[in-house]
Structure formats: C-alpha cells, structure tokens
Fold:
Amino acid sequence: MGYQLPPLPYPYDALEPHLDARTLEVHHDKHHATYLANLNKALEPAPDLLTLPPEELLKDLSVVPESIRTAVRNNGGGFVNHNFYWEGMAPRAGGEPPAGSPLALALQEAFGDLSVFKEKFSAAAVGRFGSGWGWLSVDKQGRLMIHSTANQDSPLSEGLIPLLTCDVWEHAYYLNYQNRRADYVAAWWNLVNWKKVAERYTEAC
Structure:
C-alpha cells in the first residue's frame, strides 16, 4: 500500500496568528502529500523497501537502486522532513526548553545563551539560498550543530540526528509573509515545541 500521510498533529488554524490555516492546509494536504505520492510511485519497482521506515532509506541511500535513488532522496526527504517539521511545532508553544533538561544544558554549553542560539539558527534558516531547511542536529560526536540543507535533503543522509527544523521553502510561508522570510522565521519561534525537541535530544544521546 505504500507509506501513509500522517494527519497534522493539530487543526489547521491552531498555529495562528503565526501560521495561518490556509497555509497549513495547502502545505500539508498538497505539498506534503505530493512528496509522499511521488515517493510511493518511485518505490514501485522496489516494493521490498517499503518494509523499512522511510528514515532508514535516507540514512543509507545505497540500499536504494541507483535508478530510483534521486527520486527517493528528493521525495523521501520531502516526506520525512515535513513529518519532522509538523511535530516540532505546537499551539501555544515557543518560550524556552524545559529548565534543567539535558537539552537546555547542552544548548547553554554549545552556544552560551538561548538568544545566541536563536540568532545563529535564524541566520542559517534565513540565509539558505533558494529553497531548503534550517536545522539543529546532533553530530557523530554527540555535539549540537546548526546547519541548513538545500531542497529536500535530510540530515539523516549526512549521518546526523535532527532535533529541530524550520522549513524555508516559499510554500511554507508565502501566502502570509510573501518574500519576508526573516519575518516568518521570527514568528516561527513562537511555535517551537521545546518539549518534543527535548525528547528528541534525550533519545539521540
């Protein structure tokens, strides 16, 4: 049957005023769903791969036949990245990581101050040329790192463990923010589900 599209974790209008209902509806039901449909279509010649979670395909693209590898990388990345993006936001969220949590302590050690972290992350997201994503990930040495990826590339393919992402494709914000990517990223901080990010960090470490 192929992979399935998870429903949004909240109603379309739950993230207003920072992200409007129409943007969420189009983003999830059209863009996200299209990546999924194209991923399932790409895997039709290799149905045995559907027994693996899509994240596992991105972690080791060498298991994917070369003839469909680019399609799986692009559309699988789009599918997985969007799942990750939705789960990293929540209504009435934002603020700071849970006080005293391993994540809060790690952010302080790595960046000295949450405001410095936010500034550096925003710069990576806003500064990504063209379409892509801003990320907070854990590297192979267990260190926090801020980076960005182009198009639908996933940190999983680089051996990294992603913790938090901001989608900076224009379809993520253009209906409300037009070309003002920096305004969108600034508003997005009010939606960050720090509890979920903290859980991801604990699992990663």
Observations:
- Helices lie at 21-42, 54-59, 66-87, 102-111, 114-127, 174-177, 181-188, 194-204.
- Residues 20-87 form a domain with the Helix Hairpins fold (CATH 1.10.287.990).
- The beta strands are 132-138, 144-150, 161-167.
